Amino acid sequence: MRRWRVGTLSLGVLLILLGVIMLSAQFKQVAILDMLLTWWPLILVLIGGEILWHVYTAKEQEPKIKYDGFSIFIIMLIVFFSIGVYSLTATGVLKGISWAVESRVISAEVPAGKIDTSQGIERIVVSAPRGKLDIKASSTSEVVFFGQAMVNAANADEAADLIEQNGVVTHREGDTLFVQFSSNTWSGDFKPSIRQIGYTLLLPPDKTIEVSGSNYFNIDIDSRALGKEWLVKGNGAVNITVVKPSDLFIDAQVNSPGHLGGNVNWEIQEIADLHSNGRPVSEGHLKWGQGSSGVNIILDGGEVTVNEI
Question: What is the count of structural domains for the chain?
């Protein structure tokens, strides 16, 4: 008569359950890691149940439990693994790993927006993102913005939610419209994050414009968007495309003459230090026609590139 060894049944049932879960994951696109994280305590219930059943059904008055050594070894590995899984689950590490496995880089559109500036708005203050901002002329009195982002997310819905949470913020105060663009929100490899984001902003040419940024920005400006009073300041790269013929001026203050570039001939002079770092700064001047419109650029760091086309 063969004697039942505790562990054999548990290991067999456990392997069957794992096989069923994996098949279900294959055919029904079930997130297998989520299922295992949810149902792993059943392993301990199964082993304990087998021991109790063996004791209860044994005919001896003092039954001796015999174990299947190999099965017990495998089950112990599973038990310790389960304890480790529980610890990692409680700390949120496995959830992050599970998300990282499922995530991918998704291209998502930034929802477009429009703001009518014809009703008393004279000044527009733009907070540039840490990234790309393309500024062009609006053919109407509306401020228009839209963009494209590369988002690290598990699916398109999660990417859209993240973009919405970090969308463009606008606020009007008197005759001034404030437009603030969100930047990349890198949170690490185990959380949803915006890897890269770029915006296009259309501005009416008859408004006073101020563009600045607390982070390093990269701004492309179409000269046809420039009005009479433009100011760009901060730390970053400013690229201006001048479409000839133009009636335009560009004045730029940078840390050195090498930070003024492009296919134009800058008129450069050194002036007293404006940034209190003990060194003079370089001021570059460009002018087309009468210079009726244009931009003043003051950079703590970065460069100004102007190209004629």
Answer: 2
